[in-house]
Amino acid sequence: MAYTIFSSASVAPNTPSTFRFLADNNTVLLMNLEVVAACGSLLDGGGNLSAKPVLFGDTETFIVPEQAVQYYRASSAVLTLDTYNNTATYSVEGTADSPLPSNTNYGLLSCLNGTIGSTLPLIDGAIGLNPLPNINLVGLVGLFWWLSRTL
Q1: How far is residue 49 from each of residues 12, 88, 105, 146, measured CA to CA in Å?
Q2: 99 and 52 in contact (C-beta within 8 Å)?
């Protein structure tokens, strides 16, 4: 597992917001490229990021479930906000989530959520139904006729 950091530029009335995207290393690499392309103007540094994914164990920063803003791909990837503390995380099911901090950069959050949500690949997704073998309409009608006669 790895994560990358997306920090917003300080734009009034918002103070800089620090978001972290956590997933497997390849997904984090892909999302770095996609987010910089889509949200570069909202990022600190104007999208000139050369950030590499941070592997767990390489830093003292801990990402905790209470900081989760959005889960993706059956919870195998998550977007967190450093200043967020969702007290409902460990509460009884049905407890309303805590509101995001008032100084959150919602422009960047919206861009991150939209970009990640629309481009995050589903690798080895659910197996779809295979099409029926080559049975033409006459064969299908004949099959139903035979089944109706034998039952």
Answers
A1: 22, 34, 18, 67
A2: no
Q: What is the reported pTM?
A: 0.74
Tens of pLDDT, residue by residue over 14-42, are: 678 899 999 988 888 889 889 989 998 88
Q: CB within 8 A of 19, min separation 6: which ones?
A: 5, 6, 7, 8, 69, 79, 80, 81, 82, 108, 109, 112
- Structure-derived torsion over alpha carbons of residues 62, 27, 76, 16, reported in degrees to the nearest 10: 40
Query: What is the secondary structure of the chain as a DSSP string?
Result: -EEEEEEB---TTPPP-EEEEEE-HHHHHHHHHHHHHHHGGGBTTTT-----PEETTSSS----GGGEEEEETTTTEEEEETT---GGGGS-TTPPPPPPPTT--HHHHHHHHHHHHHH---TT-PPPPPPPPS--HHHHHHHHHHHHHH-
